[in-house]
TrEMBL record, chain A:
Protein name, entry field: Mannosylglucosyl-3-phosphoglycerate phosphatase
Record EC number: 3.1.3.-
Organism annotation: Methylobacterium symbioticum
Keyword Hydrolase in annotation: yes
A Pfam short name: 5_nucleotid_C
TrEMBL record, chain B:
Signal peptide: 1-36
Name by which UniProt lists this protein: Ig-like SoxY domain-containing protein
Domain Ig-like SoxY: 46-154
Coiled-coil region list: none
Organism per entry: Methylobacterium symbioticum
PROSITE patterns: TAT
Length: 559, 156
């Protein structure tokens, strides 16, 4: 009997040769923990970046997007390169472990071969190894979206994640979904966090005074390292403002520059921006703010195997859901970066051994809920995934559930980029449903909406995604729809991208003046009423027993 | 309906009052229907500049790229200049070209005051906000910022 670990080693050994560096080592040799961690050390500072794990303590399946369009100057640039083009760009052989980790190509077959990725206990092992090798040169930074979006993080109000992250001893963090725990809970956690929660761009809404520390200075390998935190700039717009009424956000580019200048004045040899801006926003920011050496970028869930250079600034994108850690070694001398080497370390859960202490902690957290979470609701015939600009089959399932359980004409589901993947034939458990829906404002509303308003909603969200100026983007995907089809021209200006809205039930065009019954969830408005979305979805799956979601019908132009 | 919203005096405004004199007045001119806003904006600017074409620079408008709440958008305007009796900014006018009434507020300055003011403005929809500054020698400068007003996000 061949174990999965043996199979992985064989698969890796038979993968095609590629010309460069660590990818070749990866493909030629047996896939081992040793190889995954192999790194020729450099310089006197090591940054380790983890971001957007969305409270996933255990290894997950997460399919990367096949559609991730860039607009304006970002058109055709990474991270807006997917699938085959991505493999070609980075010289990654098809069918290889990295092809599985980084693209949706042949996803189902490769997922069955290479298994789940991530797991905080595996991440702990990798961190232990890097710290053992690099000692006091290491800075471990958490880019946020850490405390929310799983069942245990929801019922413990983030405490499970706070306790587990405490074992990893991050040096600093910033946030986004953290804020959906509300002002009081965030303050309570931050007060006892054990590491600074940085956010130069979060202010008291009335007095414009800093709500969090902006910058923390560290000594690593004889260099002074300034870490500036940048929380998600549009938290009170993309998420409920009423939960954090006294905090105001924004990009605040000039304040970023002021923080950088201040850090340099205080003798920083290396300036790091720990950012939850999203990749395109950070690329623009890096081109305009002078003096940032490294941007550790998060929010948009992009995983890139190499740093992107903007002027003298390195952009590091480390993926999501615990699938990756990035290690960046830097040679910092005389207040400047003389050289660097980086590696996106894929956390193959069947290859990297779990760290015992973290594994025990995770087990203890889950024990009271394990029976409920593993309970099966039904099965899926289709591959269920969420990531992609316009649709995900998991969202199709949620829209089907909203349409049938809430008896609506039209369903709307938010374009969240988090949520785990299920393979065809797999059982759907309570936990799978929570992994796609666990938020603090889950009410599944049902309301009348005119056709004009529906178009306005779609136009509004489309501009959050496709405004040619990244500073006006919010970093989610397009709102998902059920019961209607539409066409979108991503290259057109705000307010004129959406057309051909058609009600699927009748095949007739959506009339601006007519009223339709719309069901949705995750409204940012206070006082939204309805059952929690996870109950709606669970009830639908139980009723159907086997699900095969209705595919979304979106025609995309101008890409 | 008034398009100006003037809150209690902010600390910065208090400072401005302390060192010199600055008076803020809400606009009262009416633009009629929303469609008339753009011509009304141009007209208001022309009247303010006494027919001169404003030059970009010296006046700086600070606004968020996307408003967290269109009903109360924080705004700071400042003018680069010595603020001496010989050279100072007389008046800064703020117009929001997409509002039903584009006139928002006007700040009057005197020499030795701080040429900076902040307030909160109301924006009905995504639009350009324009600041026009008139110096004591009659020269005029402007700055423009687009502010997006959304109807509810789905980000994440």
């Amino acid at each position: 009997m061949t174990s999965r670990r043996d199979f992985l080693q064989i698969a890796a050994a038979t993968a095609a040769l590629v010309p460069t560096g660590w990818i070749r080592a990866f493909a030629q040799q047996r896939l081992t923990q040793y190889d995954l961690l192999a790194f020729e050390p450099m310089g006197n500072v090591t940054l380790v970046h983890l971001t957007d794990i969305h409270a996933q303590l255990r290894p997950v399946l997460f399919r990367e997007p096949s559609t991730n369009l860039g607009v304006g100057e970002a058109r055709g640039q990474v991270p807006h390169v997917t699938g085959r083009a991505y493999l070609d760009l980075y010289g990654i052989p098809g069918g290889s472990p990295l092809a599985y980790a980084l693209t949706p190509e042949d996803y189902v077959a490769l997922a069955r071969s290479y298994g789940r990725m991530g797991g905080l206990d595996r991440i702990a092992t990798v961190l232990d190894a890097i710290r053992a090798e690099r000692g006091d040169k290491v800075l471990f930074l958490d880019g946020g979206d850490t405390w929310q979006n799983s069942y245990t993080s929801m019922v413990s109000k983030g405490q499970d994640m706070v306790d587990c992250m405490a074992l990893l001893k991050p040096d600093a963090m910033t946030g986004h979904w953290e804020f959906t725990l509300g002002t009081e809970r965030v303050k309570e956690i931050v007060d006892g966090l054990g590491c600074p929660f940085l956010g130069q761009n979060v202010r008291d809404a009335e007095w414009n005074e800093p709500a969090f520390e902006s910058t923390k200075m560290f000594e690593r390998g004889g260099a002074k390292v300034a870490v500036i935190g940048q929380a998600f700039p549009y938290t009170p717009i993309a998420n409920p403002r009423w939960m954090i009424p006294n905090w105001s956000f924004g990009i605040r580019e000039e304040d970023v520059q002021a923080s950088v200048d201040n850090a340099r004045k205080e003798g920083a040899d290396l300036v790091v921006l720990l950012s939850h801006n999203g990749f395109d926003v950070d690329r623009k920011l890096a081109s305009r703010v002078k003096g940032i050496d490294v941007v550790l970028t998060g929010h948009t869930h992009d995983a890139l195997p190499q740093a992107v250079k903007v002027g003298n600034t390195l952009l590091i994108a480390s993926g999501s859901h615990g699938k990756f850690l990035t290690r960046v070694d830097l040679d910092v001398r005389d207040g400047a970066v003389k050289g660097y080497r980086s590696k996106l370390i894929p956390i193959f859960s069947d290859v990297i051994a779990p760290q015992k202490a973290m594994a025990a902690k995770i087990q203890a957290i889950r024990a009271p809920h394990e029976a409920m979470l593993s309970q099966e609701l039904g099965r899926t015939e289709a591959l269920l995934y969420r990531r992609g600009n316009f649709n995900g089959t998991l969202d199709d399932l949620i829209c089907d559930a909203l349409l049938s359980e809430r008896e609506a004409d039209i369903a709307l589901s938010p374009g969240f980029r988090w949520g785990t993947t299920l393979l065809p034939g797999q059982a759907i458990t309570h936990e799978d449903v929570y992994n796609a829906t666990a938020i603090t404002y889950p009410a599944a509303y049902r309301m009348p909406m005119t056709g004009a308003r529906l178009k306005e909603v779609l136009e509004d969200v489309a501009d959050n995604l496709f405004n040619a100026d990244p500073y006006y983007q919010q970093g989610g995907d397009m709102v998902r729809v059920g019961g209607v089809s539409y066409a979108i021209d991503v290259a057109r200006p705000a307010g004129s991208r959406i057309s051909d809205l058609t009600l699927l039930r009748t095949g007739k065009p959506i009339e601006a003046g007519s009223s339709y019954t719309v069901a949705g969830w995750a409204s940012v408005n206070e006082g939204t009423e309805g059952p929690p979305i996870w109950d709606v979805v669970a009830s639908h799956i139980k009723a159907k027993k086997t699900v095969n979601p209705t595919p979304a019908q979106v025609t995309v132009r101008g890409a | 309906m008034t398009s100006a919203k003037i809150p209690a005096m902010s600390r910065r405004q208090a400072l401005a009052f302390g060192t010199g004199a600055m008076v803020a007045t809400a606009f009262a001119f009416r633009a009629g229907p929303a469609l008339a806003a753009k011509p009304a904006t141009d007209e208001a600017i022309k009247a303010f500049t006494r027919g001169k074409e404003p030059v970009k620079g010296r006046v700086k408008l600070e606004l968020p790229e996307i408003a967290e709440n269109g009903n109360t958008v924080p705004m700071t305007v400042s003018v680069d200049g010595p603020m001496t009796a010989e050279s100072y900014v007389e008046e800064v006018m703020i117009v929001a070209e997409g509002n039903p009434n584009p006139g928002v507020i006007s700040f009057h300055f005197t020499p030795s005051s701080v040429a900076e003011a902040n307030t909160r403005i109301r924006l009905a929809e995504t639009q350009n906000v324009i600041a026009v500054a008139r110096m004591n020698d009659g020269s005029v400068f402007s700055d423009v910022r687009q502010v997006k007003v959304t109807i509810g996000g789905c980000g994440g």
